[in-house]
Specification:
single chain; Fructose-1,6-Bisphosphatase, Chain A, domain 1; eight-stranded mixed β-sheet; alpha+beta; globular; five-stranded mixed β-sheet; binds manganese (II) ion; binds 2,5-anhydro-1,6-di-O-phosphono-D-glucitol; D-Maltodextrin-Binding Protein, domain 2
Amino acid sequence: MSKTQFMTLARHIIEGEKRHPEATGELSRLLSDLSLAAKIISLEVNKAGLVDILGFTGGNNVHGEQVKKLDMFAHDILIRAMDHGGHFCVMASEEEENIIHIPARHKIGKYVLLFDPLDGSSNIDVNISIGTIFSIYKRVTPDGMPGTLEDCLQQGLNQVAAGYIVYGSSTILVYTTGEGVHGFTLDPSFGEFLLSHDNIKIPKKSHIYSINEGNYLYWHPGLKKYIKYLQEEDEKTERPYSSRYVGSMVADIHRNLLYGGIFMYPADHRHTNGKLRLMYECNPMSMIIETAGGRASNGKKRILEIQPEILHEKTPLFIGSEEDVRMVEEFMAKEEISSEVYFSNKS
Ligand code: AHG
Ligand code: MN
Ligand code: MN
């Protein structure tokens, strides 16, 4: 793209749909609705540090409304922005135990929306990047009826679109419909997402690893050996690797997508299925990373092929540059150990 052309998110989505004569334009409209929610959340995230100074905390704000925690605020905004467009038959959020129905007064659509409204919420108060993650499916139950749990419990392979927004030094929205991964930076002065990262490809091999090393004691022995291997010196394979872990998965994976890297949230003795949620975090990030040329697995199996059994299912996650993810899988496969210890429940 020439530097003198501006490609807005809305135009980019429409151009993408034009390449598919069978497309109805509905996906374009729902992604535009999502970008509106992203702008509102971004604005609120930027004000987070002012909450104490302006005396809003814990009570009512200037409008007499109860102040919400930012993750609940993001959850509510997403529902309010998305429930009346006529696109969705059901939604689900990391912040809500059950599926979210579309109110009866609104049209029921053919898509399903799953989201993590605010990822990295422990970083909100310390000015570290946080994000929103979304995943979109087509319904599997008959059209016209309210959506069900069955519509939500689909394999990641069925996603028709996925993306995330990082609220960082700038706000960036990254999405894919399976044809390339594209990033748009929000211009705060006129409120438009402009194409800044066209057709992102993740490097095949990296020299960055991201993992919470505080859990080392509890890891699979193969994983321990892999991390020690990354810390050894070898010029040819660019070792030792650098360690980078922000504690917001969306920000860690965004950096690794651009620079190359492997992000891991493994199972361990205390968390037998890791920590991250399959439907709201792992599936959408896996669709993005795979479309960009990377790899995502639970250590044994491709994330996108996992058949979910429950809405808030957790899974171990190894995601990023293809060669690095393959290598950690090999290290773990070499260690003879009962896999039940690491893959035993769905909670
Ligand atoms: P969330 O804020 O949506 O609950 O997710 C937090 C997740 C993820 O963003 C991050 O990578 C991970 O928790 C960090 O966990 P640890 O503190 O255990 O490393
Ligand atoms: Mn999260
Ligand atoms: Mn969250």
